[in-house]
Design brief:
By secondary structure, the protein is α/β, with parallel strands linked by helices. The protein contains 3 helices and 9 strands.
């Protein structure tokens, strides 16, 4: 098999895996960057945003489990306005995968919750807002990482 055939074969397998992962994310209700932006834009910009476990979102990076997806890690307390700004900046941004490669995120990119270099299997599935706080609800999306 020559190099062009190998590259074509690898691209075909990669496309199949991408499709299966996208279907899994959609089936389990995982939110995309665009959906997260829309929900945050509807919230009070001065409200505190946190995960349901009481921790706070911080920055985005390529997700270790699937490099072409994005993950948000944990950090200090932040407002909706601060997190919304970072979420909007992630759309169209190019991140380097944990083991290399460049991956550009879109508004359709699923959002995972994981520290850099880790694959938690946890994704954001809902945003619940009140006047004082916004809670990011998560769920196990990919039990490969259980």
């Amino acid at each position: 098999m020559d190099k062009n055939n190998v590259d074509s074969f690898i691209a075909g397998i990669s496309a199949q895996v991408d499709q299966q992962v996208n279907e899994m994310c959609a089936k389990k209700g995982q939110m995309s960057l665009g959906e997260l932006v829309a929900r945050l834009e509807a919230a009070n910009p001065n409200a505190i945003v946190r995960f349901e476990d009481g921790t706070y979102p911080r920055d985005f990076d390529s997700y270790r489990g699937y490099y072409r997806f994005v993950a948000v890690d944990h950090g200090p307390e932040c407002t909706v306005a601060q997190f919304l700004s970072k979420t909007k900046q992630a759309i169209g941004a190019t991140f380097v995968g944990y083991k290399g490669g460049e991956f550009t995120m879109t508004k359709f990119t699923p959002v995972w919750v994981s520290e850099y270099g880790r694959a938690s299997g946890i994704g954001i599935v809902d945003v619940q807002s009140s006047d004082k706080e916004v809670v990011l609800r998560t769920a196990l999306i990919d039990d490969l990482y259980e």
